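Q: I'm building a small set of examples for a reading group on sequence design. Run inverse folding on the following structure and report the sequence directly after it, with nothing in between.
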């Protein structure tokens, strides 16, 4: 549905927020964002196996987790794989090719965000670009957490400002952006 053009690859290498290796610090920041936005139930969305594992190990099951069994294009280690396989969260399986966002992934993300219970979206392919639609679809006060290769975890507080930045990148992808918004179940406000 949407693909990352080569001309945008560098834009996606810059983190959308601060990088940390401390899951407790990250979770404290997420709690602060929920409080500032008066959104005590605002979800945490984790994009990536290692990020999901670290949040769970720190005592916080992400409301939505997108995993693909890989980290930096290599299989995750056995401890992470078995810990995530043992999680009893509801699971949705989707296909999503590398450097793309499929309608299947976008629809699953919308469904997972609407679910009151934690959901793991198991991606065959790659989930690397899923932070963008997560920022667009999650309510204000949420946190979207993804891995920054070789550095740590990035937490993006969902605010009108971060949503506008994500929207700009999302709309720069190649493909049918209107249909992608429909699959995501969210037509953005004109917040520019």
């Amino acid at each position: 549905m949407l693909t990352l053009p080569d001309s945008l690859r560098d834009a996606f290498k810059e983190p959308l927020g601060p990088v940390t290796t401390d899951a407790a610090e990250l979770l404290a920041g997420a709690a602060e964002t929920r409080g500032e936005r008066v959104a005590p139930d605002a979800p945490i969305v984790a994009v990536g196996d290692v990020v999901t594992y670290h949040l769970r190990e720190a005592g916080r099951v992400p409301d939505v987790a997108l995993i693909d069994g890989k980290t930096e294009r290599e299989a995750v280690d056995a401890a992470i794989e078995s810990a995530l396989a043992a999680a009893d969260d509801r699971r949705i399986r989707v296909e999503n090719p590398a450097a793309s966002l499929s309608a299947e992934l976008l629809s699953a993300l919308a469904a997972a965000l609407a679910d009151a219970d934690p959901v793991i979206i198991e991606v065959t392919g790659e989930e690397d670009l899923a932070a963008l639609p997560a920022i667009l679809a999650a309510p204000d006060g949420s946190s979207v957490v993804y891995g920054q290769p070789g550095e740590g975890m990035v937490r993006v507080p969902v605010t009108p400002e971060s949503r506008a930045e994500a929207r700009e990148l999302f709309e720069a992808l190649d493909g049918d952006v209107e249909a992608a918004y429909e699959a995501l179940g969210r037509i953005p406000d004109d917040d520019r």
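The longest strand covers residues 90-96.
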